[in-house]
Each structure stands twice: as structure tokens, then as C-alpha cells.
Design a protein that fits this description.
285 residues, alpha+beta, four-stranded antiparallel sheet, 33% helix, binds flavin-adenine dinucleotide, FAD, oxidoreductase, CO_DH_flav_C, FAD-bd_PCMH-like_sf
Length: 285
């Protein structure tokens, strides 16, 4: 199918982006980043934006750099940019590992990290990474700029705290201490499909005991989030198969899983139990 007709605008600066959004968002204008979610939706006529503000020519939006305590990820940084570790240490390795679970290679060459956050699919790997690690998001509009913590940004299925005239200019991921362990596991029916449930865990070990556990779950509820009940189960304990089972159980009991055409809420709860345990096993390897 073909999209409905639209006008494409090609700003060259961030100021031009926010000015175009202020003018065209009220007339159903939208940002076009990698187009890997928006274009298929337009082709199916599920969205008919009259104006597309194509940010791909804006200088500097492909910036990917360490700024103090953060890795800053500009609005045009593609999923594929993370295939090789972008920085030394656990954060670079984690991003490289997770990036290969997103869709298929051609999609990863076009789709963007920030586009995934703005699109806010509950199964998005980057939403899960951002929620688990505690990302902060730099949002700009003609009214100024603001920093939005990820747990305020993700509101529900494809729903975020972005106002219609706001542009997600940059995501900021906190750097991880060098001794951080991470584990990731996702379940999808076929390789490249959206995950039906996914878990990302990070923790550190001090005197053989887990500290600073982060347990994030995606794909099960309407948006990715940390699960405090599973983290409380882990903190202060020595890693063991029995502990990982207990953390999986805590996560499964804590979530309120979605029921949809793919599967039931009960099955998703079972998946949460399994992906949490397997992510913890991965972290220990
Ligand atoms: P676009 O498609 O350009 O835009 C998506 C939406 O976000 C639009 O509403 C747009 O206006 C808005 N937007 C984009 N950037 C910004 C910004 N900076 N500020 C404000 N609004 C913005 N994703 C996964 O996470 N995991 C998967 O397993 C996965 N599998 C896929 C399989 C297929 C077959 C396809 C087609 C896509 C899949 N995707 C998957 C989606 C893909 O990762 C997209 O790239 C991503 O969701 C959106 O990024 P994008 O840059 O392509 O955004």
C-alpha cells in the first residue's frame, strides 16, 4: 500500500526542527527519523500525517559521545551504531549485545535510538535499556528545553510525555561502573520479531553479595519499567540458581501483563518469570 500524500520538510538545524514542529504539529505534522515504524504505519494508512519533518539532514544529531557521567545519544543515532561497543566498559558491551536483538539488519541501519523511545512500543529494546538504566531525555521545542526522566517519559503503549510540538533531541544513559555485570534475555516467536517479554538486569558484587540490582522488564506491560520487588529479592544476597528463581517469581507476581492477540496475560506472566531468571543466568556467565 502507499501512504496518503504529505509534504516533506527538511530542516538543517535544531531551531528549524522546533520551528517546523510548532507550525506543522497542529496540522498533523510529525518528525520523520529512521522511518522504520512511521513509514509502515503510513503505508497501512493507520497514520496520515499531512507534514513530515525529516530530521536526517540536521547537522550534529548523529552525535554519540560521553559527556561527564553520561553517554549522549543524538536523535539520528541508528540502532546499528551500537553493533560494536561505542565505549569501553560494560555499557558499551551491553548496548552492543542488546542492539543485535532489534528487528533485522536493514531496519537497524535506519531506525534510531531516540525514534524507538518516541515511538514507545512496549517491546522496544531501547525503551527497556533506558528504563532499566535510568535514562534522561533532552526534549526541545520553541518554548525551550527540558530534561525528562525515562520513568516519566514512558506513559503507556506508544504514549509518551512528549507534547505535540516537542522534539526528543538526545537520550542520556548513565555510564556503568567497570565491575557492573549485565544480563539480557528476550522471548519472541521468530528472530527479529518484537519480544513478547524481555528482561535486562545489571548488578555489582561486593564480598560475593549483589548490590545495586536493576531489573527491567519490557514487552509484558504497557511500557518497560524497573521491578523493585525483584531488585529487593536480589540485593544483599549471593547469586545462586535458587535466588534467580526467586527473583523471577517476584517479577512475575509484580507485573500486570497485557493480554492481546498474541497471547494471554497468564502466559506473559510465565514469560516474565523465565526471562528474568535467564537474564540473571546470563549476567553470571
Ligand atoms: P520513525 O519511524 O521515523 O518514527 C517513529 C515515531 O516516533 C513517529 O511518530 C515519529 O514522529 C516519532 N519520532 C521519531 N524520532 C523522534 C524524535 N527524535 N522526537 C520526537 N518524535 C520522534 N523495534 C524494536 O525496538 N524492536 C524490534 O524487535 C523491532 N522489530 C521491528 C520489525 C520490523 C519488521 C519493523 C518494520 C520495525 C521493527 N522495530 C523494532 C521498529 C524499529 O526499531 C524502529 O526503528 C523504531 O521503533 C522507530 O525508530 P525510527 O527512527 O525508525 O522512527
Amino acid at each position: 500500500m502507499k501512504p496518503a500524500s504529505f509534504t516533506r520538510h527538511v530542516p538543517r538545524t535544531v531551531d528549524e526542527v522546533v520551528n517546523a514542529l510548532a507550525e506543522y504539529a497542529p496540522q498533523d505534522g510529525r518528525i520523520l527519523a529512521g522511518g522504520q515504524s512511521l513509514v509502515p504505519i503510513m503505508a497501512f494508512r493507520m497514520a496520515r500525517p499531512a507534514h513530515l519533518i525529516d530530521i536526517n539532514e540536521v547537522e550534529g544529531l548523529d552525535r554519540l559521545a560521553v559527556d561527564g557521567e553520561y553517554l549522549s545519544i543524538g536523535a539520528c543515532v541508528r540502532h546499528g551504531a551500537f553493533h560494536k561497543p561505542v565505549i569501553d566498559g560494560p555499557l558499551g558491551t551491553l548496548l552492543a549485545y542488546v542492539s543485535r536483538h532489534i528487528a533485522h539488519y536493514p531496519i537497524r541501519m535506519r531506525g534510531t535510538f531516540c525514534g524507538s523511545l518516541a515511538h514507545a512500543d512496549p517491546s522496544s529494546e531501547w525503551c527497556l535499556v533506558s528504563a532499566t538504566l535510568g535514562a534522561e531525555l533532552l526534549v526541545k521545542s520553541v518554548r525551550g528545553e527540558r530534561i525528562v526522566p525515562i520513568d516519566e517519559f514512558l506513559e503507556g503503549i506508544m504514549t509518551t510525555a512528549l507534547q505535540e510540538d516537542e522534539f526528543l533531541a538526545e537520550a542520556r544513559l548513565p555510564l556503568l561502573p567497570a565491575d557492573t555485570k549485565f544480563g539480557f534475555y528476550e522471548f519472541s516467536r521468530r528472530a527479529g520479531d518484537f519480544a513478547m517479554s524481555a528482561a535486562l538486569v545489571t548488578y555489582r558484587l561486593v564480598d560475593g553479595k549483589i548490590i545495586d540490582a536493576h531489573v527491567g522488564i519490557g514487552g509484558a506491560e504497557d511500557h518497560a519499567r524497573r521491578i523493585a520487588e525483584a531488585e529487593d529479592t536480589l540485593n544483599g544476597q549471593a547469586p545462586s540458581p535458587r535466588l534467580f528463581v526467586a527473583a523471577g517469581e517476584a517479577a512475575a507476581l509484580a507485573v500486570d501483563p497485557m493480554e492481546d492477540i498474541q497471547t494471554t496475560a497468564d502466559y506473559r506472566r510465565d514469560l516474565v518469570r523465565a526471562v528474568t531468571r535467564r537474564a540473571l543466568e546470563h549476567a553470571q556467565q
